[in-house]
Amino acid sequence: MTLPGHLSSCSDAIRLLITGTAESGSPEQIVQLQCSRSLQQPLCEALANGLRQKFPGAAVAAADEQRASPDLTLRFVEQTQSVDWISGSLAWQHSDGRSGQGPVIEQSVMDGQLTADSLADYARQLVQHTEFPL
User: Among 33, 56, 75, 77, which residue's Cβ finds the most Cβ atoms within 10 Å?
Assistant: First the structure.
């Protein structure tokens, strides 16, 4: 059981008062990630991991895995992609109709190709520098 001094939100406090526990059986927020087929699989996985770190209590899933209506839908808006360079931004749509887009960020390597590690770093930067409504 979570102690009252360790509650992270008002909803945790209410849940504790009603049920005696601050933990719920389902995530408080559902984040849907739309990855196009043209994106490399490592980038989609890295974006999902970055979103899970940013929203630890949320359920993050790809659009084709989603079972419930999402609170937030994200997609990567690609500007340029090659074996050694990628640029783009994250666009988001909230379930209440609000929408927005983060800054364009680019990543390049000079001595080789983009790797899963460099794409993971790129995804972290995209998530870190995008202001989300959650």
Answer: 33
